[in-house]
Amino acid sequence: MWHDGARVYDLAQPMRRGMPQSPNHPPFRMLLERRHGDVVRTDGGSAANELIVTGGHVGTHVDALAHVSHDGLLYGGADPATLTTNDGFSELGIDAFEPYVGRCVLLDVARVHNTPVLPAGYEVTAADLESAAKNVEIREGDVVLVGTGWSRLWHEPDRFIGLTGGVPGPGVEAAGWLNEKRPRAVGGETIAFEQIAPGRGHATLPVHRIMLVESGVNIIETMRLHELLDAQVSEFLLILNPLPIVGATGAPVRPLAILSGERS
Amino acid sequence: MWHDGARVYDLAQPMRRGMPQSPNHPPFRMLLERRHGDVVRTDGGSAANELIVTGGHVGTHVDALAHVSHDGLLYGGADPATLTTNDGFSELGIDAFEPYVGRCVLLDVARVHNTPVLPAGYEVTAADLESAAKNVEIREGDVVLVGTGWSRLWHEPDRFIGLTGGVPGPGVEAAGWLNEKRPRAVGGETIAFEQIAPGRGHATLPVHRIMLVESGVNIIETMRLHELLDAQVSEFLLILNPLPIVGATGAPVRPLAILSGERS
Amino acid sequence: MWHDGARVYDLAQPMRRGMPQSPNHPPFRMLLERRHGDVVRTDGGSAANELIVTGGHVGTHVDALAHVSHDGLLYGGADPATLTTNDGFSELGIDAFEPYVGRCVLLDVARVHNTPVLPAGYEVTAADLESAAKNVEIREGDVVLVGTGWSRLWHEPDRFIGLTGGVPGPGVEAAGWLNEKRPRAVGGETIAFEQIAPGRGHATLPVHRIMLVESGVNIIETMRLHELLDAQVSEFLLILNPLPIVGATGAPVRPLAILSGERS
Amino acid sequence: MWHDGARVYDLAQPMRRGMPQSPNHPPFRMLLERRHGDVVRTDGGSAANELIVTGGHVGTHVDALAHVSHDGLLYGGADPATLTTNDGFSELGIDAFEPYVGRCVLLDVARVHNTPVLPAGYEVTAADLESAAKNVEIREGDVVLVGTGWSRLWHEPDRFIGLTGGVPGPGVEAAGWLNEKRPRAVGGETIAFEQIAPGRGHATLPVHRIMLVESGVNIIETMRLHELLDAQVSEFLLILNPLPIVGATGAPVRPLAILSGERS
Questions:
Q1: Do C208 and C219 touch, CB atoms closer than 8 A?
Q2: CATH code at A161?
Q3: End-to-end CA distance of chain C
Q4: Of A29, A38, A53, which has the smallest distance from its Cβ to D85's Cβ?
Q5: A103 burial class (0-12, 13-18, 19+ CB within 10 angstroms)?
Q6: What is the rounded average pLDDT of the residues A13-33?
Q7: In chain B, which among 35-54 make CB contacts under 8 A with chain D?
Q8: What percent of chain C has pLDDT over 90?
């Protein structure tokens, strides 16, 4: 079959209590409800299960267009009030995002700077992206990811979240550069696809505005990209299938990178 | 690229409050926490978000091997007590399931009986599977799905859940037939991959025992297969990437079927 | 001390998964997270704990004035939009309800009709209340409860919820009668302090409008009153101290009736 | 009536997202589900509601005897395994705690040391309690509270929780002193009714062992006592009616102190 020999990379961070996540969202919690032996069926069978509390922007996830508004308007000039119900957004929610199976380009900005991990608060520039993209074509409709190496810091929650130290990411200029490529979605490894200066917290989110509100481009956050960065992979087939949670402003996803056998 | 012309089918049911789910598991609920305008940043930006409560066996999902024990033992003879923590299972949880990208065979048993929807409580037999499989090869390591047409009943929760009417599915004999093929996973459209007789409820789960406990074969439930059944697709590339919830006995997934362009 | 010899009645229904509750609210669920032995401290100690998911109108509870609006306005003509935040209501929430320690009158309408349990869908009338009140004085600022006997039906969830069969309770006329007494709060045993006709569901809530929106009188629902009814108690000291959940439209409470020793 | 002129003190801290709570327990979160206008009934009525996620040991709460075990045993030598179900504890849960309406003594140890707030990590001694109790009688079956002044620090979450700085409270010696009085329950203002040395975290809980496991005495934590301390009240009627959550190891409560008119 045509996928023979393909290599698959798991691009999601594992979800567990205490993992790094934005303080703006409900904390993830999974706990067992029934354990084996609690209820034993007549034939000797027993089933364990769990309850999960989470947010839509927790762990590796995709932002829906409904996530952000600017000056009171969503993408396309939609009035959020008319789309908002007690069951979430009737339009522009994550269920409006078609599962993506297609080309993806990874721009390794950390490598441009000869470092495995960009400094906290570093602003990724258009020149950085240009350098990282010099050997790969970006086509309209691709998903474009920006490598910072920050998925390596997953096990250091405070540093990863960057409330005091900041987080590296694209500034407004880089967002414009990305936007000109007319991508299907953009994303990266950090808690927010933004440059966050030290001490600034998540005060403003200009790249979210440019992508979600002005351009209708979804954002993928908290991806696990370091294996692809280590393998110097810049182009692959991306599977991006967030949970179809109707009306939500975002949803967890376990993205996969597939490298066809012939290319490896 | 090698996926050009591929067609993608979304095999997950949409997740929303009130959707059909097993009464044994925490009910799904998604609600908005912040709405646009609740908190407006200094630059005019505003972000909406949500809280989600769910179970691991809610909506389209994959059962981990830790889900079921029999006579006090899990797959491989493991003692559940030694693997159980307040953070879930240290082994055999859904995080032990490698994302699957591979061949999948769909056996349309409803079509064998010339019906779009098998009757409630119908036991799928080995002969049914044999008939449905007569034009397709099943290879070791494939995922094998059984079509009952029941994803067409998603919008009738009481009927779909089948507490009084029952649910069609494989009996012990059919499970044995499936098991001989040495599949990577098995699954279907119903609330439980079992034949549930009318009025019997979810009293015993013999196919879960055979698959999860005796054979180490994961089960996929509540899949949305009717588009594939309508298209008479019996073989495709399956993407099966459940959320990596560490220690959970199951996790939601949005499976995709990919049909390569040359084959369509 | 002055409470010597007092008898205490517990007026709350026990809270557990599966208890009757309005389908309009998040279902109650309590589950253990840590069990003993999961985490053992160095000294041999171990602590078990739980997670609780619930709504503010689940189990015995008090409705805050913010719970209901009519024609777009809350009590006092307040605009709900200006009081609503992602943390709930900045005014008129349950935290604005001062804990009540004071006189309470119980009007046993079931006894007026010589029955332990009023029929489903029965409308309590002003004449019923007048009869029930003939031997007890109602003073301004009292809490006034209406006995229907329905706390006896707690263990029959479908009947108690009354989605098809209906629920007995005060109609508009009786609400007017109650209101003239200028009570501090009113309440009863049923899922909603309303007369709900068979088959009508919770379509409209006129008594909620009269009490919460027009009069600023809180409502107590799902109380456990049958012990007081059996003891023919019509006057007692009520403790009504709902959880101080800031901004919520209601909160669970465990009300107590205290009968002073001299009276018993 | 006999409560005429009584003064009521609210002894519960308000519950809101971000309030101080032990990191060992699920974080409190209350959010609106329906807002006014989301669903408007035919008569112009609209109801807002909420979802609440919490733990049993969050906010002002009572510890059930089932909360703590020592060397594998609960109070009375009970084996926790035999009492544990997927619905909580079948015995010794918070539902086994009868609502308490009775005498309460408050021992103001902060005043003994002429300070409004005891230092972090301070060990309350038997001599402290003896001094604080010199003008008040403690009777068998009373609830005995220890004042540290720490409810004044509620709005400083990090300091209140004391993970690094520690928390003042009774040591083993003081617990023995309390225990000799044979109280119905004991409690205080802090996150845990223990002396927690700076930097030590919640590593061991000897007072919990002495009270819950060895003596069958419930513990009340995170109480709001500073108004009583300011008023120099040492004896009052306590209402202690935790939510009747069946099988839970603890439950939130809104305790009230009632001072009879004649005494004030």
A1: yes
A2: 3.50.30.50
A3: 17
A4: A38
A5: buried
A6: 97
A7: 35, 51, 53
A8: 94
- Residue numbers in A near C32 (CB within 8 A): 31
Q: Encoding tokens for residue A178?
A: 């990305």
* pLDDT score for C131: 98
Q: Verify whether the Cβ–Cβ distance D31 to B29 is below 8 Å.
A: no
- Residue C232, judged by CB atoms within 10 A of its CB (0-12, 13-18, 19+), counts as exposed
For residue B241, give its domain range.
2-14+57-259
| Beta-sheet strands, E only, within chain D | 7-10, 29-32, 45-47, 50-55, 61-63, 68-70, 84-85, 88-89, 100-108, 123-124, 143-147, 169-170, 185-188, 218-221, 235-240, 250-252, 256-259
Residue B6: predicted pLDDT: 87
**ipTM summary value:** 0.96
181-220 of B, contacting A, C-beta below 8 A: 203-206, 208-209
How confident is the model at residue D56, as a pLDDT? 98
Q: Hey, what are C220's tokens?
A: 């107590």
Separation between Cα atoms, residue C238 and residue C219, nearest integer Å: 14
Q: Do residues D42 and C204 touch, judged by C-beta distance below 8 A?
A: yes
Distance from CA of C232 to the nearest CA of A (A): 42
Among chain C residues, CA nearest to B30: C26
Does residue B118 have a pLDDT over 70? yes
Residue C82 inside a domain? The answer is: yes
* Cβ atoms of A257 and A11 closer than 8 Å: yes
HSE at residue A88, side-chain half, CA atoms within 13 A, is 29
Interface-testing mutation among C16, C28, C32, with chain A (most A C-beta atoms within 10 A) = C32
Query: A236 and A259 in contact (C-beta within 8 Å)?
Result: yes
* Structure letter (DSSP) for residue C191: S
- Single out the residue of A63, A60, A100 nearest to residue A237, CA to CA: A100
How many structural domains are present in chain A?
A: 1
Residue D236 and residue D183: Cα distance in Å, rounded?
Answer: 15
* pLDDT tens readout for residues B121-157: 999 999 999 999 999 999 999 999 999 999 999 999 9
C-alpha distance across the termini of chain A, in Å = 16
Bridge partner list, C188: C146
Total beta-carbon pairs less than 8 A apart between chain C and chain D: 290
Dihedral, CA of residue B173, residue B174, residue B175 and residue B178, to nearest 10:
130
Q: Which pLDDT score is estimated for B160? A: 98
The structure tokens listed for D48 are 């807002």
C53, closest residue in chain B (CA to CA): B53
Distance CA C34, CA C29 (A): 16
For residue range A60-69, what is the model confidence (pLDDT) as tens digits?
A: 999 999 999 9
Stretches where chain D sits below pLDDT 50 are 263-264
CB contact under 8 A, A256 and B243: no
pLDDT category at A263 given cuts 50, 70, 90 is very low
Tokens of residue C107, six digits: 């009007």
Residue of D nearest to A83 (CA): D38
Residue C39 within a domain = no
Neighbours of chain C (3+ CB pairs under 8 A): A, B, D
pTM surpassing 0.95? Answer: yes
Q: Please list, residue by residue across D165-178, b when 16 or more beta carbons sit within 10 angstroms of its beta carbon and e when fewer do.
A: bbbbbbbeebbebb
**Residue A101 domain-assigned (yes or no):** yes
Q: Decide if pLDDT at B214 tops 60.
A: yes
User: What is residue A264's predicted lDDT score, i.e. its pLDDT?
Assistant: 36
Cα angle B123-B126-B130, degrees, rounded to a multiple of 5: 125
Torsion of Cα atoms, A183 then A189 then A194 then A195, to 10°: -130
- Return the number of other C-beta atoms located less than 10 Å from residue C30's C-beta: 25
| Residue B51, in any domain of the structure | no
Mutation target among A9, A36, A94 for the B interface, most CBs of B within 10 A? A36
